[in-house]
Amino acid sequence: MRLSYPEASYSKSDLDVPFTFNKNSFATNVGLKKMAGQDNYGVNIEYSNLKGTIFLTYKNIDGDSISLMKFIKDAQNFTQKHTIKADEIVEQVYINDERKVYGMFYEVGGNAASQSQFYVTDSVNHFLTGSLYFYTKPNYDSIFPAAKYLEKDIKQIMESVTWK
């Protein structure tokens, strides 16, 4: 059985947050939640047809290099917790000097709870992390096509992030 998904069509997000990104029109809902702390937000990009969500968390670091290092370490540790179930974790560095976006994308293979995770920052004021989760028990063979489709959306988010 071959699963097919529509060709991705991206448009700029229009949320009241300190960054913009391109989102796929295939997403069925984009929710925004103000979190504890100044300028901290959660954004959920839901794909009900795929029974999955990309969860974004934004934190304002306001020039605090200690907080930045803590957030990066937390993001890396969060990904490494999946090594229990993951067959492999492939890291891909992301650098865009023009837009001042630097980060890491993690592709998690195997029956882990999350197949893709990332973080990006400008290294001074902004930190954004994201994870992909499906509403089903992790079975890599079954969710692989959807995970690959949404991996492209996650990379599009990383590549299109612009800080306000």
From TrEMBL:
It comes from Formosa agariphila (strain DSM 15362 / KCTC 12365 / LMG 23005 / KMM 3901 / M-2Alg 35-1). It holds the Pfam family GldD_lipo. This is Gliding motility-associated lipoprotein GldD. InterPro entries: GldD-like. Keywords: Lipoprotein. The lineage of its organism: Bacteria, Pseudomonadati, Bacteroidota, Flavobacteriia, Flavobacteriales.
